[in-house]
Amino acid sequence: MGKDQIIIMDRIEGKAGKAFVVFTNLPVWASEDGSKKRMDVDISVAPFDEINKNQPVFAKKKGAFKKKYSCRSCGEALDISAAVPMDFTFDVACNQFPTFTFAMNVPGVVCGVCGIGNAVSAGGIEEEIGSAIIEAVNSNSIEM
Ligand SMILES: [Zn+2]
Fold this sequence. Notes:
Elements: E1 5-16, E2 19-30, E3 37-39, H1 46-54, E4 60-62, E5 68-70, E6 77-78, E7 84-92, E8 100-110, E9 117-119, H2 125-138, E10 142-143
Parallel strand pairs: 3-10
Antiparallel strand pairs: 1-2, 2-3, 2-8, 4-5, 5-6, 7-8, 8-9
The chain binds zinc ion.
């Protein structure tokens, strides 16, 4: 085994259900000959920190039984039956490693008042995003 080094994956992508994800410039550790690669960030956590906490994109959701959705920016009520595939892109800075881009295409609604795009957390989309991330990693022979 030689020494591991960081390499940058230009683009890896995965799909599950209605979720499509793309990582651009993702840093991974690779063996000297490039045959073995493994993540340097917790890929199952970092994107979710962005989409839920650092750069939240989901519409606000209220109600125990019949959920009501409202714009994450201005609070206007949203009709999620009008959701269409929408792109959301995030720069992710993780520890001391190079910044990478995480993009996802998921159902979303544009607010009729302020015009901002809201991702819609319904129909298990967050689980599908997780599965799409795992597919992207696995299909590129990267170890988690
Ligand atoms: Zn709005």
